[in-house]
Amino acid sequence: MKGSVRFENVTKTFGDVVALKPLSLDIAPGTLVTLLGPSGCGKTTTLRLIAGLESASTGRILIGGEDVTHLSATYRRVSMVFQSYALFPHMTVLENVGYGLSVKGLPRAEIRDRAEAGLETVGLKGFGARLPSELSGGQQQRVAVARAIVLEPEVLLLDEPLSNLDAKLRRHVREEIRQIQQRLGLTAVYVTHDQEEAMAVSDRIIVMRNAEIAQEGSPHDLYDRPANGFIADFIGDANLIEVSVLNSADSTDIALGNRRLTLPLRGASQGPARLVLRPHHLRLAAEPAPDRIPAEVTSAAWLGNSVQYLLSSEMGTLFAITDPRAQAFRRGDTVHLTFDPADLRLVPA
Amino acid sequence: MRRTAGLWLLIGLLGYALLPWYMVSGGFWSFGWLFRPEEETRSALVWAASSRPWLWLPLAGFVPAALALGLARAPLALARGLVASGALGLALMAAQGLIILGNGTRFGMMAGETQPGMGAGALVVASALLFLLTTGISGLGRGRGDAFLTGMIGAIVALVGVFVFYPMTFILIRAFELKGGAGLGLSEFLPRFLSPEIWSPACLTGLGNCGAALNSLLLGLATATGTTVLGLAFALIFTRTDFRAKRLLRVLTILPIITPPFVIGLALILLFGRAGTITEFFADAFGWEKTRWLYGFWGVWLAQMLSFTPIAFLVLIGVVEGVSPSMEEASQTLDADRWQTFRLISLPLMRPGLANAFLLGFIESLADFGNPLVLGGNFNVLSTEIYFAIVGTVADPAHAAILSMILLSLTLGAFLAQRRWLGRKNYATVTGKGDSGRNAALNDGLRWACYALALPWAAFTLILYALIVFGSFVKLWGYDHTLTFEHYSRAFGIVLRNGIHFTGSGWDSFFTTLTIAAIAAPLTAAVGLATAYLLVRQKFTGKDAFEFSTMLSFAIPGTVIGVAYVMAFNFPPIELTGTGLILIIVFIFRNMPVGVRGGIAAMSQLDRSLDEASITLGASSATTLRRVILPLMGPAILAALTYAFVRAITSVSAVIFLVSARYNMATSFIVGRVENGEYGIAIAYATVLIFTMLTAILALQLIIGRRRLRRADRIDTQ
After folding, report:
1. Structure pTM?
2. Residue A216 to residue A196: CA distance in whole angstroms
3. How many CB pairs under 8 A join A and B?
4. Is the reported ipTM for this assembly greater than 0.85?
5. CATH superfamily name and code, A237-348
């Protein structure tokens, strides 16, 4: 189908280095899918394989249902927005945006019209005569997007498009990119190492680690049903606590040290496991109680919209985030922790 | 792939059937052959059908390609057919060419048959076969499936193979040749190779002259040490002091590049020779004996120091600037003083760069031909011995080949050492990140030491050049100092009578030199930059070997190349001696490494994502090269063009073997004058060359530099 991307057991090796273990994925047309992962996980390699900038060592790549494994980047109907923008410094903004059209040999008037329309789409009407060096970082970024979309590609690839922007601008530009993608109904593949960015823009996220897919799903899926400790920690921070599952039927009994807890979860396998405890699910109280776990505050940081604590407890070091309006503690204070078992998740040890 | 392959098949078949297969007299481009339907202009097809049936072989090479194009549906099958076609065709062509020569055949096959050197038809057929091969390889998925890239790689590999490696094999073979054409063997090679003429250490013990190899080695070490020390002093003054006349120092770095060989040697003779000004002065004033000390080790060493110090300077400027200011600032905040910082931080960081400059000086000294020829006297070095073995009264190609082998091993050894040993230790501390600190200034002691070492030397160099210009205007240096234009009018006289007549004896070689340099320069730049593009931007199997082989010709001394070309291209299948073409080719492959290096440096600064952006936007590699990379490489192209042009004018070592009566070059004309003792004309000619080259450099700057100006204007107006 037009705009779909499919990998069938694609691998990539550079000499002895395995950049991608056998990878299969399907990207539905019109969706924005993020490849998320720490540096060196293979996400950029995957993107470059779609673009045709790298060739697969084995396996098949299909774009729009057509086998493009051996098709060079020139002839693939995809365009890419680069981390460094890669605007041609010797061409004006309009020439940059019209470049793809002009190498196709379209008539000049059409190139100009379509390039100007592209600039309008990204809100840069009237900037066509400038050189890229005369634009701000955010504007250059949008020129790069315009240059990629005027070709009406089947797939738009974005390689960490926001990493050279400052934090404030980043949120703004990522919204714009998302709007343009939805308005034009483009299939987009977006690479980032920033999980918040990924959560904000994606229809679906593919988390990669060590040259393979760690888990894929909607942002909500990944947060709520992490497949393993890595995902739990990578998507939205987590305290991972060693526990053992005693039995599991309609609910699950676990042993946390010498405590017993019952979680409203089904079908966990018996034996060692890890408990996912989100920092903001921890509540801190000054008074002790039988079901509360005592801990000592080893550091406290007040960030305005939240307070972040590092706590030392029988479960090891815990990270907690609380509302600034809640009771404040200082280093050295003893606190007593509670949490709602319904918020807890189990992942394999 | 199908279209590209079809096109090359068609071109190949047309070349086979229509173009003259062998070299035509008068040159292909004269087109005189069109009107002479004689035997020499027959195409391969005609020859094969009449008297030379082995010329069916190249045609056989096209068969698999034609079959694959006609029958194969699957791209992979087609690609395999093309690869088979190209490989088979090239192998058959090479076989018939190498077996059946102008004066008979090799290996006793097809005895009695002869054929002349290959010509235009053969070139077209070979190219077509090569590109069928590379198109096929791209079809197998190599080079990201880009036929343009694989074609470019194939073309460069083929060119380097034919014009660097092929001739070099002749050196190897001829070195083992037995007297009287009795074949090959070790019986004569060993005694000649080990002869005291080459290896004698007598000069070390004061008992006579050393062998040529030892002389070359000692000279190389002395020159390399001297130029590195002086070059470092200059570089430190240039980058780490507030010395006022830095521009003047810059000029000093350009001088040796535009100086024809011999000029420095001649100037030294005019100063320190038996009748030299300074010799005379000391003889008159202090009654010192006039000696011939200049003609020997010290004279050659002095001339080489003058010639190559600026090169070391140029290299070391980059090295000294490459030491990151933040390292030095860190050292100073740790309470080291300036001398300690220099000794403990900066100098160790420069060490690989210094070693690089040393090896470069060593290679240059060994390859140097002009200075030892003029000043050597009884001090024999390898490069001049090779020359005399070829052009001397008793021509002895086997001896020349043995000497070439030794010289080549020395320079290659240095080249390999440079790559092996320095390649790993790269302390370059310049990163892409802006380094805002300031380099530490030198402490006083070191600064004055540098001044004391470098400034008198700079003054000496400048005086020498002034004398060269002056010397071209005096009647007979040392004897008759009347000013005269006589030398200029003899070499460059013009008579205006019924039009302009260039009557001067130098005009012929002057025009030939300019023409050939002008043709060679853009080709050199193109090959060099194309290679750089492949090395920096593309990944392919065997890239390391590819890089090594393209840089190799840098380590091959000119004399060795010259001898190898004479041996390889004097008879079929590739018979080029006596043509202008061989001069152009020798310049391209001699000067290509510098284009490659410049191109690599310039291209490394262009972010790779620029090409990738262009390619993902639907541009082909060729379009990307033309519209994105080349426009951004203006200065590098300019440098490569200038360098290639100037080197083609000043080169002598390889050229001197390859010039002919019809294509005489300026430098070999000057050699002739020097050998006749006509120093006046030689110097006048050299002066004209220097000013010609300066003009050319400025003109190129203006032409190519203007585009950058316009861009700057545009930035300013908005």
Report:
1. 0.80
2. 16
3. 90
4. no
5. Nucleic acid-binding proteins (2.40.50.140)
